[in-house]
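Tokens help. Our protein:
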Amino acid sequence: MQRRIPVRQDRADQTRQNILRAAIREFSAHGLAGARTDAIAESARVNKALLYYYFKSKNRLYEAAFEEIATEVAEQTLASLDRRHSAGERLLRAALNHFDRILTKIEFQSLLQQEMVRLRRGEIGNAPILVKKIFKPLLARFEETIREGIRSGELCDLDWLQVVYSMLGANVFYFLSAPMMQFALPFHPLDKAAIETRRRAAVQLLGTALFADRAHGAKLAKRVLAEMPPPRFRKDQVWRKGL
């Protein structure tokens, strides 16, 4: 009997995971109010009653799904700040990781936008999860990394928070402004070639702007781009609604 317990637990864990992945898809597409638990159960290939067995309510399921994908994004971003690399190289890798996340993590982008809208309406929503899982740990790691780079002389002596806004804000604005910029530019900003060009240019700019030794920064930017090739995506998979 003891040997069967892990098997049952594995099945229960897999069932719970299937429900969460189905919930992430449904909530990201339709929001909390518009999502249908019937659709989640069908997509997860489970009886609808199991949704309530594991998560008690639709709101609890939404919170669990949001925390699941927020944790995944936070872990991937923190991994890009690997201390095996110099502080400057970590920042370049994190900036590129952020660009690629906006490009490919469409479900998270949709859920993030929904939470931003709820905050503007005065609803707390899942903001505490975002702060706990993503914003606080990442800001702390960015501050630590930038200050380390300044102390070592690798980075220019700049305000650390402005560096963060410059690194990530340019990526956000690029995707946020794409629907309007397509009418001002002779190409669509979300075409594959345009995305790859902007991705490369963003890292090259940081390699020049943040480093005390520009030649060193440019060399690191070239290496990071070579070691982190563009993710595969189709045009219909690209995030087109902004952040």
